[in-house]
Amino acid sequence: MQQEINKIEIRSEEVQEILGYIPHWIVKSGIGLIFALIILLLFGSWYFKYPDIISSPISITTENPPASLIARTSGKISMLFVIDKQLVKKGEILAIVENTANYVQVLELRHKLDSLQSFFILYDSVFKQNFNPTYQLGNIQTSYSSFLKLYYEYSNFIDLDYHHLKIEAINKQLQQTQNQINGIRKQSVLLKEELDLASKQFSRDSGLYAKGVIPTSEFEKAQRDYIQKKYAWESSRTSVTNSEIQLLQLDQSVLDLKLQKQDQQNQLRLQLKSAYDILKSDIDSWALNYLFQSPINGKVSFSKIWSQNQNISVGETAFTIVPETQGQIIGKLQLPLAGSGKVKTRQLVNIKFNSFPSMEYGTVQGKIKSIAMVPELEFYQVTVDIPQELITNYGKKLPFSQQMNGNSDIITENISVLERLFNPLRAVFKKYQ
Q1: Fewest beta carbons within 10 Å, which of 167, 352, 413, 433?
Q2: Cβ distance 398 to 361 under 8 Å?
Q3: For the purposes of burial, counting CB atoms within 10 Å of the CB of 9, is it exposed (0-12), middle (13-18) or buried (19 or more)?
Q4: Taking the model in full, what pTM does it have?
Q5: 398 near 356, Cβ under 8 Å?
Q6: Whole-angstrom Cα distance, residue 36 to residue 91?
Q7: What is the dihedral of CA 228, 231, 232, 238, to 10 degrees?
């Protein structure tokens, strides 16, 4: 009975009016449409791809970048030799910071020291220089005095050549002694002949004396004569021996003098070369602190300095030298370690310059040229090839200037939407496997 009542209530006119009638074709078509949309979305997420973008600040320069001259000491510019945008040569002095040294004399001394290179190779007096002892060199004065003392000491050693003169004198003695030995040897030969004759006479007289033919006085005379001849001959032999000993001593004296000369010469050379290197180092330090010299050929651009007697502080950029041949325009950027594995050479880079808003001027496109093999401070140094004419995607040509800064977007490999959705799920799945 209750079931009949429920049927009556469900099929009552009031219920039918509330629910309405739902046609079967709408239900079937709606399910098919939803399924087709899902298939279309899956296909689109697999088919459509877009790249990752890695952003980094970028600085635009050239293969031959400008050289900045930074002050290494604080002080007043005492001399200014150039004007803004003047062409200069490598090594040309641009300005001098006030100091206690006479810069003309310091530069003259440096030139003379440079010319001594040949002297320190051969140590030949032909390459010697005359140095002024009255130079005003400021804090270089001490090392200059030490060098000058040793330089003159070595010069006197070479000019006097005491050891050589002493050796020549001994060599003369050697020659005289040798001549003396030769003379004594000749005398010794004669004395030996006389000794032989005296010996024969003494033998004859001895026989006669034994037979009682001659008196004792004549025998003693013959004996005395023989003894004198023998003594004279022995004395000559002793003289030869003594002279030969003297000859050996003179030879030893020559060897000792040569060794002394070599030792003293080597010691003086070492001391002089050490003083020379110290003086050169002090002059280089002085030049580094007080001189602004152009490191390259190029055009001077004034930074902090524009007039003489102006003060400058340590660390300030005084001048910038723009090279004559700048080379190809390139970009330098620092690539963070995170995601750096995606970046490859020849990938495109979109550059937006700070001084030219991208909404108005557009972007310039470059390519990755090279990537450093080793990171530095958690960044890879990346070089970007940039067209020589900075033409944006809006068709506008931007004027190039050194050290143009901006932001870069590195366009990496394309990845589909589906891969981007499933990559995190895949990572989670592998984590809990």
Answers
A1: 433
A2: yes
A3: exposed
A4: 0.62
A5: yes
A6: 77
A7: -170
Sorted by where each starts, the structural domains of the chain and their CATH numbers stand as 2-47 (no CATH), 52-63+326-431 (2.40.30.170), 64-92+294-323 (2.40.50), 99-289 (1.10.287.1490)
Contact present, 147 and 275 (Cβ < 8 Å):
yes
> CA dist 233 to 140, 190, 210, 219, Å?
74, 9, 28, 21
Specify the residue for token string 């002297």. 119
The candidate with the shortest Cα–Cα distance to 381, out of 314, 431, 333, is 333
Q: What is the pLDDT of residues 262-277, one digit of tens each?
A: 888 889 889 989 999 9
> The tokens 């891969």 sit on which residue?
419
CA dihedral 58→63→66→70, nearest 10 degrees, is 80
Distances, alpha carbon 252 to alpha carbons 162, 166, 218, 242, 246, in Å:
17, 13, 51, 15, 10
Strand order in the sheet with 291-293: 291-293, 93-97, 75-80, 311-312
* Crossing angle between the packed helical segments 216-290 and 162-211, to the nearest 10 degrees: 170
Answer yes or no: are the C-beta atoms of 372 and 354 closer than 8 Å.
no
Per-residue pLDDT reduced to its tens digit, 209-252: 777 777 878 877 878 888 888 888 888 888 888 878 888 888 88
